[in-house]
Design a protein that fits this description.
The protein has 71 residues and is of the alpha+beta class. It has one domain: Structural Genomics Hypothetical 15.5 Kd Protein In mrcA-pckA Intergenic Region, Chain A. The protein is built from two helices and seven strands. The strands form two sheets. It has a five-stranded mixed sheet with strand order 1-7-6-3-4, with no helix packed on it. A hairpin with a 3-residue loop joins strand 6 (57-60) and strand 7. The protein is globular and about 30 Å long.
């Protein structure tokens, strides 16, 4: 499982996908979420504004599993 570090209280799913190198730009988020499944703490979610906090686990279809940690 790869770790993505944040220095703020939370990060949105759209920002996370960019940090995790799943997408190249923020403009790709909506299309990416329509085409790929994302599980946050074992629940499907496709809201680009979903807030991710330290300790959350994210599984992105085709890209692997990630955990949110403190930077």
């Amino acid at each position: 499982m790869k770790s993505i570090g944040i220095s703020t209280e939370y990060i949105t799913l759209g920002q996370f996908l960019k940090l995790a190198d799943c997408i190249g730009t923020g403009g790709e988020v909506k299309h990416f979420l329509q085409e790929n499944s994302v599980r946050i703490n074992d629940e499907l979610d496709n809201r680009r504004g979903r807030k991710l906090r330290v300790g959350d686990n994210v599984k992105v279809e085709g890209f692997g599993a990630f955990t949110i940690s403190v930077r």
